[in-house]
Amino acid sequence: MPLRGFTLAEVLITLGIIGVVAALTIPTLMQKTDEKDIVAKVNKVYNTLSNAFSMAEANNGSINKWDLHFTWGNGDDAVEDANKLAEYLKPYLNISKDCGVNGTGCIYDGMYTFLDGRDRENFQNSARYKILLTDGSAITMRTTGDAEIPLNLIVDINGPKGPNQMGLDTFLFYANKNGKVVPDNRTISAVGCKKSATDIEYNGETCSAYILLNGNMNYLRE
Length: 222
Hints:
This protein is an alpha+beta fold and 222 residues long.
């Protein structure tokens, strides 16, 4: 019997179908892979910070004995607080670059944004102590002036690289008066972690809490 192969038209149609399916599915698969990587990094940095605070308190006493002014702002007291806070925590962190308060290269030196794209803050220009860890994540730290949540930590999980946006690569944590690291201003909560959040103070600010609670970034599709 004569052998019958595929015609050129049939081959082209098949390749076209494969191309369409790939175009529809590959971006989704890549996005899910990227999101899993971010979720893993957020959990890792949360554990890193929790361990650092636990060890710092074990060796230096509770936070309220750390000789800090607990001042919010950019004045001399705030800078002194940031420097002292870093000295307590640095021995328990794997640091690749120490930028101090004024040094550059640890974090992005431009404007960070909220999840919806609005300007948030230039952390480089604030009284924050900045360090870059060996895993590529950057931690900035300062005191808050709030007795309940005295320490504020902004983490950029990929250092100076983009997008430098709350809820995408930049996440907010606090340490409360008991030395416990929490991903919100009082406890673990995910309120406000979505682009549609109307309160300027919370748009993307609690996405660290969302990730720790849910193990995903579905807020990007809410």
